[in-house]
Fold these 2 entries.
Entry 1:
Amino acid sequence: MNRTLHLITKKSILPFMVIAIMFSCQKQKNNSRMNRKVDSLMSLMTIEEKIGQLNLPSAGYFKTGEAASSDIGKKIEQGKVGGLFNIKGAANVREMQRIAMEKSRMKIPLIFGMDVIHGYETVFPIPLGLSCSWDTDLIQQTARMAATEASADGINWGYSPMVDLARDARWGRIAEGSGEDPYLGSRIAEAMVKGYQGNDLSAANTIMACVKHYALYGASEAGRDYNVTDMSHLRMYNDYFPPYKAAVDAGVGSVMASFNEIDGVPATANHWLLTDVLRNEWGFTGMLVSDYTGVSEMVQHGIGDLQTVSARALGAGIDMDMVSEGFLTTLTNSLKEGKITEQQINQACRRVLEAKYKLGLLDDPYRYCNEARAEKEIFTDSNRAFSRSVAAQSFVLLKNQNHLLPLKKQGTIALIGPLADAVENVTGTWSVAARFSESITLRKGLEKATTHQAKVLYAKGSNLYNDAYLEENATPFGKTLHRDKRNADELREEALRVAKQADVIVAALGESAEMTGEASSRTDIGIPDTQVELLKALLNTGKPVVLVLFNGRPMTLKWENEHVPAILDVWFGGSEAGDAIADVLFGEVNPSGKLTTTFPQNIGQVPTYYAQRNTGRPMGKWFEKFRSGYLDVSNDPVYPFGFGLSYAQFEYGEIRLNKTTMTSSDSIMVSIDVTNKGPLDGKEVVQVYLHDEVGSITRPVKELKRFKKIKIKAGETQTVNFILSNKDLSFYKSDLSFGSEPGKFEVFVGGDSQHVKRAEFELK
Ligand code: NOJ
C-alpha cells in the first residue's frame, strides 16, 4: 500500500476505532456493575433459592403439553420460581411480580415470557409467510412492533425467532420458521433478534429474544413432530446451524433447546451441542432454557429417571427448566449425592439473574407493567395498518393465466370456501395473544373493498374435511371452522347456485390455522379432498376461478396448477389478512412475495429443496434408467424456491462480473440489469446463487448468497450490484474447518432458483 493511501486509511478508520473502544469500555463497565449486583444477590441466597431461580412454570393460560406446575403463587412466595410464561395482561403480570417482590425472602423479580411469535395482539403473517417477503427491514420492524406491544403488557421475554431450517413439508412447524435456506434464514434470524431486542435490552419497550429450537428440530425424521433427527456434522454446520449462529452473533439473549435427540442424546442433555458448540465455539453467554417439559420428557426418551435427566440437563448447560420441575424437585438431592456440583447450580443461577439484570428488572421489577402504555400501544389503528401492509408483502402469486388478476371492482364476485369467513383461523398458528373476533376475514375484506362497486356473494361450499374427526383434530384451541351440518353435496349445490350468479369466483381453500404448527404433521399435504371436489365443481361452471390458498406449509398443487387459472398463496396473513388479500386481488398492492420453500409435485418427493447435491447419476430432462430420480414423476418441483409472480413483468439482462478471477483476500462484483416490462410498477427479489464446481467435499448445485428486493417502475431498468467475498465462497470441510478452495465457481442471478442467468469466475 502506498504511504498516502495508508495514512488516509488509518485516518478514516480512527473515529470507528475510538467508538469501538468507547463501546467496549462501556460494555466492561456494565458487565462489572452486573457482576457486582449478581454477586451480591447470590451471596445471600440459599442453594434452594438458587435452584428456585431455575424453575420456569407456565401460568397455564395456554397449554402445549402436560403442565406439571400448580400452586404457583405459593411457590413464588417460597422462592421456588424464577420466571413465568404465558400470562397475559399488565395487571396480571404486576400481581405475580408483587408476590415475588413483597412475599419472597430474596425479593428477586420474576422474568415473564410468552410465545410472541409473529406479533402480539396485532398479528403479522405466520413466519413462513413473513419470510416470503424477503424483506429483512420489514421483518425487523414486525419484531420491533411485537416487542413494543408485548412489553407494554408486562412481557419481557419472547420465545422467538424460531429458526429451524425445514425441508420436509410434512412437518407442521415448518410454518413457524423461514423456510429451507440457511442464508436467508440467517438474515431473517438476525433481523428478528435486532427487532425484539433493539439497542438497549433494559428499555421498557424491548424484550429479550429466545432463538429456538436449538437444534435441528426441523429435520425430524418422516416430518413427524418431536421425532429423532440424525445427520452428519457437515450438514449441521453447513446447512442447519447457520441461522442459530446468526442469532447468537446478533446478540440474542437466550436460546431454547429443542425436543429432538441429536447423535442419540436429546438436545436438552446434549453437552456437545449446548456447551461445546453453542457456548465454547460460538461464544454464547446468555441464558439457555429447555423447551416445555423438555427435561422430564427425557424419561420417555429413555435416558433415566427424573433425577438423572435433570442432572444431565444442568450438566449439559441448561439454565432454566420449563415446566418439568425436574430441577426444582431433584437438584438438591443430586448435589448431596455428588451427581452435580454447586458450581453448576451457581452458573445457571447467575445466567438467570444476568438476564434479569440486562432487562433492567433488578433496578425496576415493574418496568414492563404499565397499564397506561398497554391501553395506548397495543392493537392500535396504526399497528393494524402496518400489519395489513406487511401481509400484502408476504403473499405469493403462484399463477396468473391471461392476467386474470388483478380483479376489477365491478359486477358480482362469488366468494366460496371454508376459509373465506373463518375468523378464528385468520391469524394462523401460534397467535396466542390475538383478538380472534376482531381479525379481518377475506369475506369482510372483500365486502369492504367493493362497497358500492361490486356485489360479493358468499357460500361456504364445503367443510374443511368431510370427516368430522379429521376436522376436529385440525381445529383445536377454539379455532373452529363452525362445521356445517349439511352434507358435501348440499354444501356444493348451494355454492354452485351462488357461483352461477357471479362474473368471477374466488375460492378460499386450503388448511385451517392449526393444520400447521406444533404437533400438526400431515402425511398428505394436499388440499383436503372435499375442498378439491368443490374446486372442480366451481371450475366446471366455466367461470374464471381465483384460488386463494390458505396454508402453513408447501402443499402439493400439481393438479391445481394445471387447472386453476389464478392462484394466490396467502398463508395466514395476521389480524388484517382479509384487507390485505383484497388489496392484492384488486391490484392496490402488486404482489411481490417469493417462496422460501420448494413446493413438491407429490409427497413422495419430500424432503425436497433446491440446494441439492448432484449425485453421481443426476437425472437429465427426461427419465433414464440408472439415474437418480423416480419412475413416476420428474425431480422438478411444481414451484421452486424463490418463485413468485407479479402483476409487473421483470426481464433480466446478462450477468456482468468486474473480474473473472479473484483471490481469497479479494472480492468480486456481480451486476445485472433488471427491466420491468409490464404496465405496472412492482417489486422484484433479485437472487444470487453460487455453485462451487469442484470441492474436497461435494457441494450443492446452487446456494443462495445474496438477494435484494428492489422497486422498479413500469418500463424502468435498474442495475443491481452484489459484492461477493471469500466468506461467501467458504464452507465447512470434512475436518469442520471453514474456508474456501481455489477453483471455478458458477454464479447465477435470477428471480427464482431455477430461472437464472449464468456466469463463471475462478478463485485463485
Ligand atoms: C413448546 C414449543 O416447542 C415452543 O416453541 C414454545 O415456545 C414452548 N412450548 C412454550 O410455549
Entry 2:
Amino acid sequence: MGKRESVGVALLGAGTVGAGVAQTLADRADALARYGGRPLRLVGVLVRDTAKPRAGLQQDVRLTSDPTALPAADDVDIVIEAMGGEQPALSCIQSALRAGKHVVTANKLVMALHGPELIALAAERGVTLAFEASVGGGIPTIGPLVRDLAGNRITAVNAVINGTTNYMLTRMAREAASYEDALAEAQRNGYAEPDPTDDVDGKDAAYKLAILSTLAFRCTVREPDVYREGIRGLDAADFEYARELGYVIKLLATSRLRDGAVQARVHPAFLPERHPLAKVDGVYNAVELEGDLVGWTMLQGPGAGASPTTSAIVGDVLAIVRASATGSALSGYPDVRERVSILPVTDLETKYYLRLRAYDKPGVMAQITGVLGEMGVSLASIIQKEVPEDAGTPAEVVIITHKARESAVQEAVRKLEALAVVYGAPKLVRIEDGSA
Ligand code: NAP
Ligand code: HSE
C-alpha cells in the first residue's frame, strides 16, 4: 500500500451491502482513521446504473459503470467488492490483485469457485485478499478458522449459514407464515441474494460451506463438491410433524473430514429441539466446529443484512490498513490448493423422516414396511392420520427410521413411489440427532 496520507478505497457495488459500507466509511471517518492510523478515502464506486441517486456519496467520488475503471487505478489502495455474481466480479478481483491492490470481498460465489487460486494470487503479489463477509454476515468465521483455531485439526463443520432461509423457516414454523410471504419479508429486509433462488435452493449455503470446508480442512472443496437440496419441498405439515416429534427444521450445512476424504452437504434437516443449531432463529446463523485441541465450539450472530455485513467488511479493511503500517500484507490465509476425495451423499448413515400418501386399504402398510424391510431400513416409528373411510382420499403416513444407509433409503423411496397404493412422491428429510 502506498505511503499516501489517506488510504484510497474503491467500492464495487452500492446495493444493500455497498451502500452500508459507504455510509459507515462516511459516518465513522474519524474513528476509523484513528484505529487504522490513516483516513480511509472513498475514491470511486462501481454501479450498473450511474443515474440512480446514491445517498451519502461525497461530490468528488467517481461513480462509474465501467468494471475496469477502478480496480487498478493509481489512487486506489484497497478494492471492496460488493457487487456479487461471478463476472465481472472475478475479473475485477484478479485485476486488482495483479495491480498490487488489497481486496476485501463479500462474494461467496467467487470464493467458493475460485478462492484457492485467488488466495494464491494474492500471496504471489504480496497483498491481502480478505473475505470475512462472504460467510455468516457479521459473524467472525473466517478469522477464527485461519488464525485463532489454526493449531487444530478440524474434522467437522455443522452450520446454519443462510440468513434468508433461516428467517423463512423460523417464520413458517413459529407463525405459520406462507413460503411466499416469508421470502418477500426476507427480501425487504435485505437478506436475500440478488437472485433469491440461490438462497432457497441451498446454493448460497453450499458456497459458504465450500469456503468453510476449504479453510477448515486446508484443501480445495468447491461448491459442486457439496451435495445440495433447498427448502422448496417443505410445507406446513412437515413443520407440524416436526413439532409433534420434538424436532426443528433447519437448512443444515455440514461437512466432515474422515480418512482424508470430505463429505459436504446442504439440505433441510430435522434437528432435536435441544440441538444448539435448533435454537438459532430468524436471520441468525451459527457455525459449529470440531477441532482436536479446542473440542467443540460455536460461532453465532446475524447472518445477513447491510449492517452485519458492513461490520465484517470494515473489520477486514482496518486489519489490512493496520498490517500495512508495518509494511506487511495481512497474514494467515493458508495455501489450500490441494485437492481432496469427495464422498457421495449415498455413503451417509443417519435417521430419516419419510412422509407419503397411501390409499387406506387392507395390506397397504404391509407393502410399505415390506419395501423398507427388503432394503434393510428398520423403522423406529410410524404415524398414520385417520381419514374418513368413504372419502377415497389417501391417508398420510409418516415413518421415522432407525439409522440407515442413504443409498438404501433412496432405493426404498424409488420402490415406494412405484407401488400402486402410494400416491405421489414420498418426501424424505434427514434427521441429525448427533448419533450418526
Ligand atoms: P445488491 O443489493 O443487488 O447490490 C449489488 C450492487 O452491485 C448494486 O449497486 C449494483 O449496481 C452493482 N452491480 C452488480 N452487478 C454489476 C455490474 N455488472 N456492473 C456494475 N455494478 C454492478 O446485492 P447485495 O445484497 O448488496 O450483495 C452484494 C454482495 O454481497 C453479493 O456477493 C452477496 O452475496 C454479498 N453478501 C450479501 C449480504 C446481504 O445480506 N445482502 C450478506 C453477505 C454477503 P446498481 O445499484 O446500479 O444495480
Ligand atoms: N443471502 C445471504 C443469506 C446473505 O441470506 O444468508 C448473506 O450471505
